[in-house]
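The instructor's notes for this session suggest beginning with a concrete chain rather than abstract definitions. Hand out the sequence below and ask the class to guess, before any prediction is shown, which regions might be ordered.
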Amino acid sequence: MVDQSDTFLREVDEELRREQIQQFIQRYGILIAAGALLLLAGIGGYKVWDSGRIAASEAAGSRFATALQAASAGKADDALKQFDDLAKTSPSGYRALTQMQLAGAQVKAGKPEIALPLYEGLGRDTSIDPLLRDYAALQAALLRLDAADWTEMQNRLTPLMSDGSAWRAMARETLGLAAYKAGQSDEARKLFEQVLGDRMTPPSVSERALLMLALLTDAEVAKNAAKPGETAKPAEAMKPGEPAKNDTGKQAPPPKK
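After discussion, reveal the predicted structure:
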């Protein structure tokens, strides 16, 4: 009896579940079907979009390589035209690289006034890789080194000099040059010493820092060697036929015959 009762209960339970499922389908079947169709459409749309994105990236990569080849071959005008076109039409990842190349090409073409806003724009673009963004900011600072004052160079380069910055050595070197140019010898020495004290500094940057420290030392030695307030007296010019004068300013006696 117990087995028959259990079997009967299971059959009743299964029947109730079937009825519940049928009722659920009758009530929500259209919504479920619509949701499934939307899901399939979404998956299909994403695949189409992703396929188009990959194709656009591949096309931009090919055009970028062609522009680089033109630049390497010395075809500056052709490379500039290609980079300019890519900067306007390529996907976001290639657009930043293209603008960087375009700015560099303008510098090589002797047009830093065109390159500067390109570098500055990239240096402010938070959507691109921080490494690329900081490099652009550094290049903008280098272009402003000759014309900018000490305060401007500090504002441009200080954010790039932290220990976690990949460009800290070059940023410190550039600010050291700005300090030297502004007559801030102590600050320049401090910055060049920081460059040498960083084990991650590239050898070429270390060599330049050593040269600048030697230059600062020579200038300091020359300054200390000069006696304050003492200047050499210029020799008095003599008129033709005029007897020479002695140290007292009196006319020297004529030589004995």
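Then share the key points. Residues 232-240, 243-250 have pLDDT under 50 and may be disordered. The radius of gyration is 39 Å.
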